[in-house]
Amino acid sequence: MAGRSIFATLTRKAGGRERSLFRSFSSTTEVVYEDPSSNCAEEENGETGDDLKSRIFSLRLPKRSATNVLQKWVTDGRQVSISDLRHISKQLRNSRRFKHALEISEWLVYHNQDEALDSDYATRIDLMTKVFGIDSAERYFEGLPTTVKTTETYTALLHSYASLRLTDKAEDLFERMKEANLSLSTITYNEMMTLYMSVGQLEKVPLTVEEMKLQKVAPDLFTYNLWVSSCAAALNIDEVRRILDEISLGSDSGEHWLRYMNLVKIYITSGNLVNSGSNSVVESENGITQREWISYDFLIILYGALGNKDKLDQIWKSLRMTNQKMTCRNYVCILSSYLMLGHMKEVGEIIDQWKQSAATDFDSSSCNRFLKAYSEVGLEERAAAFQLLLIQKGCDLIDESQ
Which range among 17-21, 54-58, 220-224 shows the weakest confidence by mean pLDDT? Predict the structure, then answer.
C-alpha cells in the first residue's frame, strides 16, 4: 500500500499537462455565500494592490470569501471578464488555494452561463472533489443539463475517481461514456491507465491501449509511457522493446520521442532489467516492490524526455522525502535524465547524494553499464562527460572487461 500511495501522489503531481483541462471546479449548490458586510473591511485591509487578482490573493485564510471580493468589485462599478476569472482561478489552483478557486469558478459559471465552456463545468467538478469531496462532485455532475454532459465533464469526474483510486466507479463511468457514444479522448484513456498503474492492475493497461487503437484514438507520449511502464514493472522487457520499435516506426520522430526511446533503452541496460517468467511480486523490506520502484522511475523518464527539469526536480525531491530505501536503479534513472538534458550540476549533486546514502551503496557496476548504455545509443560525448565527473568525484570505476 505504501508504494501505491506514493505512486498515486507522484503521478497526480507529475501529470499536469494531460490534466490541465480539469483542474478547477466548484459547486452552485455547495458554496456557502457569506454576508458581504461581515468581512469586506477585513478583505480591504489585506489588499496589496487595486486590481481584482491582488484583492483575491490577499485572502490568506480559506474561510475568507473570494465571492465577497468579487461582489464588491462589481458593486463598485468595475468590470470583470470571463477570461480574467479563468486566469485567476487557474493561478489559485496552481497555488493549491482550492476553496477560493472554487468560489471564482462558481461565480464564473453562475454569472456567465451563456459564455461558459465545457471546461468551466469540468473545472467545477475537480474543485468540488478537492473542497467538498467526491459525493458533492457526483451530485453536481448528475444534475448538469444533458448539453454539458460532454467528454470533458465526464472525464473530469473520471479524473476525480482515478485520483481517489475508486476503480469500480471509474470503470462504470467509463462504460457510461461509451454507451453515450461520446468521442473519447487520449486524456480519457490515459486517466484509466494511470488508475490501473496506481492500484497495481498492470494487466489492464495494454488492454486499454488495444481498445484505444481499435477506436482510432491516437496515443501520445503519456500513453506510451504508461504502457511501457506497465510492461517494465511486470518485467516483460521483450514487450518493452517491441513497443519501442513501434514508436520508432511512427510518423512522429520529434525530439521528445527520440529522447524518450533513448532514456528507456539506457534504463533497461544500466538497470540490468531482464524478462521474468514469474508473476510474483517481491516485496522489499519497506513494503515497496521492485515493480513499483520501476513505475516511479518511468515518471522520471517521461519528464526527462519532455525536457521538463522542474518536474524532474519535483519528483526526485518527493522520492527522497518518502524515507523509503531507494535502489541503485533509481539513482541511475535520475542521473540519466539530468545528463540527457545537460544539467551537469544536478548530475554531480546526485552522485554525491548516492555516495553519502546510508541506505543505498554506490554501485560502480551500475555506472559502468550506464556508460555503456549511453555509448550504445550514440551519446558518447555525454558518456565521456559523466565518466569525467565520476573521476572528479573520486568514484572508482571497475574495468569489467578484465
Answer: 17-21
pTM over 0.85: no
DSSP symbol at 289: B
Q: Are 367 and 397 contacting, i.e. CB atoms less than 8 angstroms apart?
A: yes
User: Is the sign of the CA dihedral 344, 345, 349, 352 positive or negative?
Assistant: positive
Helix ranges restricted to H, 236-379 = 237-248, 255-270, 290-305, 309-320, 328-340, 344-356, 364-376
User: Cα(132)–Cα(201) distance, rounded to whole angstroms?
Assistant: 29
Instruction: Please give the grid coordinates belonging to residue 120.
Output: 468551466
Q: Helices (DSSP H) in 133-288: which residue ranges?
A: 134-142, 151-163, 167-179, 186-198, 204-214, 221-233, 237-248, 255-270
Across the strands, what pairs with 289? 283
| Residues 280-336: tens digit of each pLDDT | 444 444 456 777 888 889 999 999 999 999 999 999 998 888 777 888 999 999 999
Average pLDDT, the chain: 84
Taking each helix axis as running N to C, give the angle between helix 186-198 and helix 151-163, from 0 to 180 degrees, rounded to the nearest 10. Answer: 10
Residue 51, phi then psi, degrees to nearest 5: -110, 160
Which three three-digit cell numbers place residue 307?
Answer: 525536457
- For 244, the grid coordinates are 519501442
Count how many Cα atoms sit within 13 Å of the Cα of residue 338 in the half-sphere of its side chain: 23
Amino acid 110 reads: Y
The amino acid present at 132, given as its one-letter code, is F
- DSSP state, 49? S
pLDDT (0 to 100) of residue 359: 81
One-letter amino acid identity for 25?
A: F
Q: Kindly state the cell numbers that stand for 348.
A: 554531480
